[in-house]
Amino acid sequence: MIPRNPGVKEGYRFSPLKMEMFFKDDANNDPQWSEEQLLEAKLCLAGLTIGQCEVDIMSRSTLAIFEMVEKAWATQNCSLVDMKIEFGVSVKSREIVLADVIDNDSWRLWPAGDRSQQTDKQVYRELKEVTPEAMQMVKRSFEWVSERVKLLLEPQASSRVVLLMGSTSDVAHCEKIRKACASYGIPCVLRVTSAHKGPDETLRIKAEYEGDGIPTVFVAVAGRSNGLGPVMSGNTAYPVISCPPLTPDWGPQDVWSSLRMPSGLGCSTVLSPEACAQFAAQILGLRDHLVWCKLRASMLNTWVSLKLADKKLQACSL
Question: Which SMART domains match (predicted)?
Answer without folding.
Answer: AIRC (SM01001)
